[in-house]
Specification:
Elements: H1 5-10, H2 13-18, H3 22-45, H4 52-59, H5 69-89, H6 94-107, H7 118-132, H8 139-144, H9 151-155, H10 158-164, H11 175-188, H12 194-211, H13 216-219, H14 222-233, H15 235-246, H16 253-280, H17 286-300, H18 303-337
């Protein structure tokens, strides 16, 4: 019996614990967002009543801006992109980088950015991924290369992340099945121009990297994602390869009909995956991330909201005072000239 990569994936904890439908993903994120709002409201209740800022926070609580689920997803994607850059800085492999990004996305299916800032969680995910994927970096070396980071800050979130992921640490990515298709296509289509295939393989690897910033890893298997990325680079090649693998022209009419049914079903999946890679890979700007992060800081420390209101009130009072003074000066000058 031959066991392929798809079989291995369907027997994995990743498939059992981390495979969802789109509605399920949306529901998980809504629940996590509500959890974050509830946690913020608890922080507001716990503020010191003796502080003037606390009074302002409670009087203006209806103006408090919480983070929406879509904003959460975009900010997480922003830090997932930064994780990719940091992994490149440490010369970590694609496997380590991809695993760290998946840890980050998995964590925030059950937690909100209003509970834990993704900038901190991302660093722990990368450090943990390096250990899991046998590319260990010492904690002191890791922190030394990242400004304003301490070993304690990295390690304090490690168990929380492990617990959230149900201690399911192995991640299956599309890189390995993509390489398998690269080899199998050469055997299945021996007359194919190798330069054409090599160029498509390199392009597909880039698209696999982009697929990490979508929901595809939660929705489809790694081989399906790999085929979709290769199809985006050369649809004619992939369809010819699959037609030959399914043996569409060499079987009896009934067998051909069954094979065609499976082929068409797979092509629907491939086209859908390809559409998601093209349209849904998130890459938020730094400016957008700053705007969302500003809201998160207020949620994590509601007393900041009170200080912000005090500052605004002070500025408004100063403007009113300046306006009154200016008006009095104008009256005095007018009287003197008369």
């Amino acid at each position: 019996m031959v066991v392929n990569h798809d079989d291995l994936f369907r027997r994995s904890t990743q498939y059992r614990f981390w495979s969802f439908t789109r509605p399920q993903l949306a529901e998980l994120r809504i629940v996590a967002n509500k959890k974050g709002i509830q946690k913020t409201e608890e922080r507001i209740k716990e503020l010191d009543d003796s502080l003037p800022e606390t009074k302002l926070v409670r009087e203006n609580q209806d103006q408090f801006q919480f983070v929406h689920p879509d904003e959460e997803k975009r900010l997480i994607s922003y830090y997932a992109r930064r994780c990719k850059e940091l992994a490149a800085f440490f010369h970590l492999s694609a496997q380590v980088r991809s695993t760290a990004i998946m840890y980050l996305y998995k964590f925030y299916l059950y937690h909100s950015v209003m509970e834990y800032h993704p900038g901190n969680i991302m660093l722990t995910c990368l450090f943990l991924s390096a250990k899991v994927e046998n590319h260990f970096i010492g904690i002191n070396t890791f922190c030394k290369n990242i400004p304003k980071t301490t070993p304690e800050a990295i390690l304090k979130n490690e168990y929380l992340i492990l617990e959230t992921m149900k201690f399911s640490l192995q991640c299956h990515h599309p890189f390995q099945p993509l390489y398998g298709f690269f080899l199998d296509i050469q055997q299945t289509l021996p007359k194919l121009d190798f330069n054409r295939l090599g160029k498509n393989y390199d392009g597909a690897r880039e698209l696999v990297n982009e697929s990490l910033f979508t929901d595809l890893p939660f929705l489809y298997t790694p081989p399906q994602i790999a085929l979709a990325c290769l199809w985006l680079c050369d649809d004619v090649l992939v369809e010819k390869y699959l037609a030959k693998k399914f043996g569409l022209v060499k079987k009896t009419e009934q067998e051909n009909e069954d094979a065609l049914q499976y082929y068409n079903k797979l092509m629907v999946i491939i086209r859908h995956c390809a559409d998601v890679v093209r349209k849904e890979a998130l890459d938020p700007s730094q400016e957008e991330s700053k705007t969302i992060s500003a809201k998160i800081k207020l949620c994590l420390e509601p007393i900041r909201f009170g200080r912000k209101l005090m500052k605004q009130n002070g500025e408004q009072a100063a403007k009113r005072s300046a306006s009154i003074t200016e008006g009095n000066d104008e009256k005095r000058i007018k009287l003197e000239t008369e």
